[in-house]
Amino acid sequence: MSKTSSRRISMITAGYLFAAGILFVWGIDFAIKSTNTLEFCTSCHTMSTNFEEYKKSLHYKNASGVQATCADCHVPKPLGPKLATKIIAAKDVYHEVVGTIDTPEKFEARRWHLANMVWDRMRASDSRECRSCHDFANMDLSEQGRSARSRHAAAQDKGQTCIDCHRGIVHYEPDPPEETDPETPGAH
């Protein structure tokens, strides 16, 4: 094979690899954007309860008209954490399909556990998604009511994060599971 033919094959291969890379990145971007929509998030019937709660919150409808959707609060903006969140979120689809949470009753039975997983993740990220809109550094405490001003200042001094005080702001805070007596037959 001549040097020219070898070079030509290398250029064609590089072109195909480049095109494949562009298609791959476009596919990932399309998948992320498609699964970050309010319509996608609320398409599972077990999410109907969460959607109804969300529609009653200020994140859905407010005087300024600014709306935060599911992805704004549950999907990080930086690419690495966003991809990790999307991979981890595949388990929600899995549990819907296999029947772990496929009815509102089953979802409610697991809600305390699921909420705690979200709260733990939010604490670990210092409520990163909340802070994309609400950041202590951008708050004008003088414009807040006395109680909010005092609590936000104290939270900042203590290094608290949004979820430490604002659980149940969009979705109702679930009740912890009832303690069962270990001596009772059938108790877990």
Could you walk me through the main structural features you see in this protein, from its secondary elements to its overall organization?
It is a single chain. The protein is mainly alpha-helical and 188 residues long. It has a domain at 42-165. It is 60% helix and 0% strand. The chain has nine helices and no strands. It has helices at 3-35, 38-41, 48-55, 70-74, 79-98, 104-124, 128-131, 146-158, 162-165. It is extended and about 80 Å long. The relative contact order is 0.08. Mean pLDDT is 88; it is low at 184-188.
Primary descriptors:
188 residues, 0% strand, mainly alpha, single chain
Summarize the structure.
The chain has 188 residues and is an all-alpha fold.
Q: Topology, please?
A:
Blueprint: H1 3-35, H2 38-41, H3 48-55, H4 70-74, H5 79-98, H6 104-124, H7 128-131, H8 146-158, H9 162-165
Protein name: Cytochrome c-type protein
Domain NapC/NirT cytochrome c N-terminal: 10-175
Membrane topology: Single-pass membrane protein
